[in-house]
Amino acid sequence: MTVVQRPVRAAGCVLWRRAAGEDGLEIALVHRPKYDDWSHPKGKLKRGESALAGAVREVAEETGMSCRPGAPLPTSTYVANGRPKQVRYWAAEAVAGAFTPNNEVDRLEWLTPSAARHRLTQERDRPLVDALLAALHLA
User: Fold this and answer.
1) Which is it for the CA torsion 80, 72, 95, 49, positive or negative?
2) How far apart are the two ends of the chain, measured CA to CA in Å?
């Protein structure tokens, strides 16, 4: 008998802000020292927490920013630590706050979409940049 594992449920945002320059916006990426990777802010949902509430909470915890969530973006499904994981994403505009390094995230960088695409460690995170641009009608 095969046991089907329920996926780990997580959520996050492609966090952006308006900026001067050719793209008109910047995307926030976080560096997690535990994995030495660059990613969009995301994390596991708490019991009973909605995906959108979890995404907004994770942005606040990892970046120090409050955000205004917008369009849903593609869901990412992959295997992490031998278990299936499903991460729901939203576009979210940063509206206030300031980053303070913590145990989970030691750096935050605001990058142009092109630079963000190149900095992301996981290939699966790169299409989210294009999905954000499409959602904002900038693609």
Assistant:
1) negative
2) 47
Structure-token match 């976080």, residue found: 30
What fold does the segment set 8-135 form as a domain? Nucleoside Triphosphate Pyrophosphohydrolase (3.90.79)
* For residue 2, pLDDT beyond 80: no
Give the global pTM. 0.93
Q: Which amino acid is at 58?
A: E
Yes or no: say if 119 and 26 are a contact pair by the CB < 8 Å rule.
Answer: no
Among candidate residues 53, 139, 136, the one with its CA nearest the CA of residue 88: 53
Look at residues 67, 61, 86, 84 and name the one whose alpha carbon lies nearest to residue 75: 86
Beta strands 25-32; 37-39: pairing state: antiparallel
Cα-to-chain-centroid distance, residue 93? 12
What is the residue whose two structure tokens read 């092109």? Answer: 114
86 close to 77: Cβ distance less than 8 angstroms = yes
Give the mean pLDDT of 26-31: 98
The first and second tokens of residue 120, run together, are 């992301």
| Residue 7 CB partners (closer than 8 Å, separation 6+) | 77, 83, 84, 85, 86
